[in-house]
């Protein structure tokens, strides 16, 4: 494989999608988003094959049984995962592409393990954990996002606390300070990794 796999992870609501979108916008010729799969329903404005591959639970589990996934996890009643063909689709392209993944903490760990035993990916996966300033600020972001009810927010915050405990498993911890500062530090780290 030509290029690196750049993985961004962290709690729900910390700003991962915004950071990913900015990287993709700034580096459209070098960086390609790997579209992952989920069983959750699309949110308003999301499209199948663009934001996620939206699968039925039965279809997702069939693909798991067929060995189609590098990693998958159940998160808040839904399944999420990275399909092998989605990640390896860029192998053999005429030009170099870095790949970008926005996945949960367990998925990032599974991907790093898979990469260690895969000749195409070994040494090419770089992971970033986006650390919220505080659980209280994360709560405020989730409330402002407006896509979850109070019970779902409490579940996400409990999950966030467990995810934060695993931050040291990542190659780089990006302690969130603000949108612009976060992006500049992420951008710098991406450029360092992709050289």
Description of the molecule:
With 195 residues, this protein is of the alpha/beta class. The chain has a single domain (5-194), classed as P-loop containing nucleotide triphosphate hydrolases (Rossmann fold), CATH 3.40.50. 41% of the residues lie in helices and 21% in strands. It contains seven helices and nine strands. The chain has helices at 16-26, 57-65, 84-88, 105-116, 135-145, 150-164, 179-194; strands at residues 5-9, 31-33, 37-38, 53-54, 69-75, 78-83, 98-102, 125-131, 172-175. The strands form two sheets. It has a five-stranded parallel sheet, sandwiched between helices. The protein is globular. The two termini are 15 Å apart.
């Amino acid at each position: 494989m030509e290029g690196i796999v750049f993985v961004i992870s962290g709690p729900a609501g910390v700003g991962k999608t915004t950071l990913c979108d900015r990287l993709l916008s700034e580096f459209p010729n070098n960086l390609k988003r790997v579209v992952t799969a989920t069983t959750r329903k699309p949110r308003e404005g999301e499209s199948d094959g663009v934001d996620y591959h939206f699968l039925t639970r039965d279809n997702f589990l069939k693909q798991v049984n067929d060995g189609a996934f590098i990693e998958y996890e159940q998160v808040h009643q839904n399944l999420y995962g990275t399909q092998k063909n989605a990640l390896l689709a860029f192998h053999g392209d005429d030009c170099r592409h870095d790949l970008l993944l926005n996945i949960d903490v367990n998925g990032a760990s599974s991907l790093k393990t898979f990469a260690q035993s895969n000749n195409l990916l070994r040494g090419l996966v770089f992971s970033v954990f986006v650390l919220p300033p505080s659980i209280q600020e994360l709560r405020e972001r989730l409330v402002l996002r407006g896509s979850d009810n109070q019970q779902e927010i409490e579940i996400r915050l409990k999950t966030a606390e467990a995810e934060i405990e695993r931050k040291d498993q990542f190659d780089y911890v990006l302690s969130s300070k603000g949108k612009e500062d976060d992006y500049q530090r992420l951008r710098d780290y991406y450029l360092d990794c992709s050289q």
